[in-house]
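Appendix B, Record 12. Input sequence as logged:
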Amino acid sequence: MTSPLGTLGAPARSASSPYGYGAGLLLLRLAIGLTMAVHGAQKLFGWFGGGGLEGTGQFFTASGYPSGKAMAVVAGLSETLGGLGLAVGLLTPLAGAAIVGTMINALAVKWGGGFFSPKGVEYELLLTAVAASITLAGPGPYALDRFVPGLRTHKLTYGVAALVLAILAAGVILLIRK
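Logged structural output:
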């Protein structure tokens, strides 16, 4: 016998549309994923008005990171591959973690400029929260993860483990920053 609240007090699944849930997660994944992939392409290739590896590397060096060009490659790959992974729902916990780790560093660089744009952290904080939310919630039914053994059904532990990895990796990078 199922209560109206479902299992462990959560609303029963039959009360909501699985199509709406899946479509909503797909839209969210596409928005955050493609936005981050474009940011990564700016860093890696200079596309869309970006600085490319040279300009982004100079920015990283000026922001206190050692080997600015190497950090530009790491950030660019994390954003591009993480963003594309989120967009298509492939290896979603790791894709989300790549975005979260990069955005933690972006928050650290911009911290102190207030909350609101142009110098504030509102945009970076929003990107971090959305990526972390998708990492925890999973990609939904319209994702390539459904074809990957072990990821067909998302488990909260995958998302938590991925976020712990992101936080630890971001922390290590921040420790080497001057």
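The mean pLDDT is 90.
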